[in-house]
Transcription factor TFIIIC triple barrel domain-containing protein
Amino acid sequence: MVVKNIYIARHAYSTSWLPKDEQPLSRTGIPNDLPLSDHGINQSQELAHYLLSVDTRPDIIITSPFYSCVETSQCIAKLLDIPVYLDNGLGNWFSKNSNSEITKPADFDTLNSLFPDVLKDSEHSTNVEPLSDGETKKELFSRCHNFVDTMLQQLNKEHPDISTILLMTHAPVKIAIGLNLLKLEDCDRTIDEDSNVLKASVCSLDRFQSSRFGMEEDEDDDEEDANETVTNGTQPMSDRWIMTMNNNIEYLRDGEERPWYFKKNIDGTENCNENEDVEEDQEETEVVYVSVDLDSGSYKESLSIDKNAIFQNSGLEREHPLIRIGDRLYEGTWQKLLGTELAFPDSASINRKDDGLASESTETADKETDNVRSVRNSRRNKNRNDTAHTEKIYRITDRLTLRGIEPI
């Protein structure tokens, strides 16, 4: 038997993400190497009970030596009664292009004194280390490849009784390992034709299964696998690994928190130390198209919007979002659009057909404004240099009616 299932988890909620005046002292004496919050301990227990409930449970845990990872591992190890091993190959990513201070974790003796009867001596260590002066994304990707390859060779050769492992680590490392197992080329790769990426939310779980064990393969893959020797384990990274779980958080009572993913074509210019509050900046971008009709309250007078006016919004997903146009503030109410309205974003125009309802805007009191929206994911935008024949047309389905709010 060899390793055929790999779980990869991101550690639970750390006190390093709390406001500075609420953070405890470091128990290892290393700045920013802080313990879990009470909320994080609860998350660890929720993950532990989830792993206890599944048929394929991990036989061992291999963890990053940073405190938050070891503490998360401890909760799982105690419930499942399995050993925990440290490996620097799972240590956090500190970008070479970031201004953050590079932190080295505590050694085995220090952590063993803080987590008695949990850690085992580092017999499974791969001796893979992060670069001391920080890493580019390419170097992180290479480090994770070397770690997984060395780890699997050691386990398959020295401990053939181990079939399922849990790797406890940090968001960037979790993703980079997953991309290596999927045989993708670098950290910026998407995982499917819909441009989805690997994400790592707090205390989330991924699972990868070797295609040689229990997975349906096409005939070509079966023939190729049949020619390999299952027990030698000499080239584990040549195996095909299939992702059966991606950023799973179904067991977390409070759902997803602090999702992290790589920003394409940005080589760590943001602070990539997880001890800093960087994940919240990685929200996905939406493009919103809006047509605006302003009612002046008079048939003889019309209003126009200065093309340089600043347009701001807050809470478009709510029933009553707030909109600011220039120095005026409005409260909106969403309504389903009657008739048909089309948006031509590439030509920056919106054509409207109201099916006999064109007079509706003139009947709206108190300077109400009709706005309509069309939202699309910015990652799927077509190149603006494409020909007119490839221009996309969007059908608007919702209307936002605005009511002016007067200052108190």
